[in-house]
Amino acid sequence: MSKTDWPKEPITDETMQTLDRILREWCAEAGVSPNSAEAQSKAKTLVDWFEFGVRSEDELARVIRDDIKLADAYETSTGPTGRTT
Predict the structure, then answer these.
(1) Phi/psi at 9 (5° precision)
(2) Which of 30, 61, 69, 79 could cross-link to 85 by cystine, CB 3.0-4.6 Å?
C-alpha cells in the first residue's frame, strides 16, 4: 500500500492562538486540565484536522468535542484495509 503525502500549510502564530483557544475552551467545558494527557491528545487531534484542511473554528471545536479522530474517520470511510468501501 502506498502512502499519500500532501503539502502541509504552515501553522502560523495566529493559527496556534486559534487552536489554543479552541483547546482551552474545550478543557474548561470538560473540566480537564490543559496540561493533562487528555488535553494533549485533543491538541494532536486539532492539529491533525487542521493539517487535513479543516479551517472552520466551529468544525474544529466539534471534532474535539465529539472525539472524532482523523484516523478513525479515515478508517470508517475506507474500512480497516485502507481501501474505499
Answers:
(1) -70, 135
(2) 79
pLDDT > 90 fraction of the chain, expressed in percent and rounded: 61
Report if residue 83 sits inside a domain. Answer: no
Distance of alpha carbon 75 from its chain centroid, rounded? Answer: 15
**Cell numbers standing for residue 11:** 501553522
The residue written with cell numbers 484536522 in the block is 49
Q: Which long-range contacts (CB under 8 A, 24 or more apart) does 6-13 make?
A: 8/51, 9/51, 11/47, 11/50
Q: CB atoms < 10 A from the CB of 42, how many? A: 23
Residues of the domain holding 64: 13-78
The mean pLDDT of the chain is 85
| pLDDT at residue 64 in the model | 94
Residue 4 lies inside a defined structural domain of this protein: no
pLDDT band at 77 (very low <50, low <70, confident <90, very high): low
Maximum C-alpha span of the chain: 41
